[in-house]
Records
---
Amino acid sequence: MEIMMFVVADPEVDAGPVDEEAVAEWDRVRAEQGVLTRAMRLRPADEAITVRVRGGETIVTDGPFTESKEWIAGYDILELPDLDAAVELAKGDPLARHGALEVRAFWPLNGGE
């Protein structure tokens, strides 16, 4: 099962600086295990651009879609048997201490469940 794991940053969590070496090692081990397909950081939320179409008019605004203290800081694409396995894996991710990790299965566009 292909699963997206969003890395959600929360500036109110005082976990100290992110240990970049621990994150890189976590990613390397998961990739060697064949579990991690891809991992990417995202630029900060204040650099986001939001696009909406309402009544035939396109509205483009700078910044994130919602006013929130938390924001999506990155993502991992995982290949695991089920969501329970993703939850177990997320427990060991060093980034879980800096915010939250949200796991969701992909939902195929072809109507598959």
---
Amino acid sequence: MALFDITLSGNSPDDIAHIIQVSLAPAFVLTALAQMLNVFSTRLARIADKVNTTAKELDKADATEARHLSRQLSFLRRRSFLLDVAVVMACLSAVMILGSILTLFVGALRDAAAASVLFACFGAGLIFTVCALSAFLTEILLAGRGIRVEVDRQQDHVSTTRE
């Protein structure tokens, strides 16, 4: 079978070693995806902590502060949604990359031309990775914007109370 410009004639140890070598590249991508998912889950936990704190403050707030806290909760909700999208995309990417590895092995076992499925799975995995990173980037930008808005609000509050 012709696989990545190398002809495999049966299942000799050299052929199997080559298949394993070819499958290592997707395995490294899976390692990177696992690290991304770790970052995503850490950020999601921080958002959850902020939501809990904000919800407790909302119970004791006056009307003006309650409006601000309500907006903050809406903002945190959007951030958590974007992280959800990033997690889903990263997981779909991992599934597609695993599918490409599986296709590589099944194709070698069946001695069939599985290159188109292999490339489709790996390509889809890369596309999902790009989508996950895009959602994560958007969430990061929202987080930075939220910090700036909160700093401005606190500065306005301090300048108002000093006058």
